[in-house]
Write a structure and sequence with these properties.
The chain has 360 residues and is of the alpha+beta class. It is built from five helices and 19 strands. The strands form four sheets. It has a six-stranded mixed beta barrel. Helix 2 runs antiparallel to helix 3 and helix 4 packs antiparallel against helix 5. The two termini are 23 Å apart. The relative contact order is 0.19.
């Protein structure tokens, strides 16, 4: 996603400008703009504003192969008695995921998100008025009314955007700038992984011979990681977005935002317990191109770990080394992500922890 610290953010016809003197706002079109003094929905300020762009390479990290017995996806063909019921790994209500340092930001985001949109009412009213007037007005008047209705809908839409959008401008001190630059470096490494999964549930295996020798089963779904700001939020820095089941995580420089439908949560990085583990995973769904294959097993194994000869259809299956990131907070965040490239997780977690020590 790269590291960009823009000096301005546009919201509709308005532009919020960041300078050493503070925050200003201007409105207009190219070549003709009218400005005013410090103003905005929500502004986070520091000192030393810059515009910076650089391309980073994914950092390398030492590799070690854990000795734990690998995990596996559940098979619908096998009886349930061979493993324990899968236990959901699920966060609490996003509205409850918060800490004291996030109250001001959350209040602003929730207030803006809860604002009633005028566009649907204006659109329905304009259409009904135009239909009622169609039989009573001459053609030229009806055309003018239609144009006016379209202008009213566009104006209502712009007003909704302005009313519901939160503007966050960051002006970093040098140490925070360097920390967030490092975070975006590791975020780029994370987005470049061949595959990422959200782990929804886990269960213990009772009879390993039916599950390729695995000790536990995972229920996981492919997910996406990208650079994207939260809905109705405009900021002057890149924001990492990770889909985690029904929730979406947004990594701002000073807060992690958690969106779950209409509910919004926010926590500082210092309150997040981010654990990373390298896990051996029995991959029967196709090996990603950047995955490290550390061993092989069979669909059905005997007590010594070799192939069980009693089964005719008993293919050899690769065992991959993946990273798992487990996000927890005391307020209810509980999400597990699995990435195909081993060695990325610990660097990313270290960058998040470092933000928690200085971005307060």
């Amino acid at each position: 996603m790269g590291f960009y610290l823009h000096k301005s953010v546009a919201v509709g016809p308005f532009r919020f400008n960041l300078s050493g003197a503070g925050v200003g706002m201007s409105v207009g079109v190219r070549g003709l703009r009218v400005g005013t003094g410090p103003r905005g929905n929500y502004v986070r300020m520091g000192r030393g504003g810059v515009y910076y762009q650089h391309t980073f390479h994914s950092p390398a990290a030492p590799r070690s192969v854990p000795s734990v017995t690998p995990r596996l996806l559940p098979s619908p063909q096998l009886p349930d008695r061979t493993h324990a019921p899968l236990q959901e790994i699920e966060s609490g209500n996003a509205a409850q995921i918060a800490d004291s340092s996030s109250e001001q930001l959350l209040a602003e985001l929730r207030d803006k998100r809860g604002a009633i949109s005028l566009t649907p009412f204006v659109a329905i009213g304009s259409i009904l008025l135009t239909l009622l007037a169609a039989a009573m007005l001459p053609g030229w008047a009806l055309l003018l009314l239609t144009i006016a209705a379209a202008i009213a809908i566009v104006a209502a839409r712009r007003r909704d955007i302005l009313r519901k959008t939160t503007v966050i401008l960051y002006d970093f001190t040098p140490d925070v700038e360097e920390a967030y630059r490092t975070f975006t470096q590791w975020a780029d490494a994370l987005t470049s992984c061949g595959r990422m999964w959200h782990v929804a549930a886990e269960g213990r295996v009772y009879d390993r011979k039916y599950h390729a020798g695995a000790t536990s089963l995972l229920q996981r779904n492919a997910t996406t990681v990208r650079s994207a700001s939260p809905p109705f939020v405009r900021t002057n820095v890149p924001v990492l977005s990770i889909a985690a089941g029904r929730q979406t995580l947004y990594f701002l420089p000073d807060h992690l935002l958690v969106y779950d439908g209409p509910a919004i949560g926010a926590v500082s990085y210092s309150s997040i317990d981010l654990a990373v583990a390298r896990q051996r995973f029995i991959e029967d769904g196709g090996v990603p191109g950047d995955a490290t294959v550390v061993d092989y097993t069979w669909r059905y194994v005997n007590k010594s770990g070799g192939p069980d000869r009693r089964f005719n259809n008993n293919p050899r299956i690769p065992i991959c080394l993946y990273d798992e990131l487990h996000f927890r907070t005391a307020s209810g965040l509980n999400e597990v992500l699995q990435v195909s490239r081993s060695g990325i997780g610990e660097g990313f977690a270290a960058a998040v922890r470092h933000l928690g020590t200085i971005a307060t």
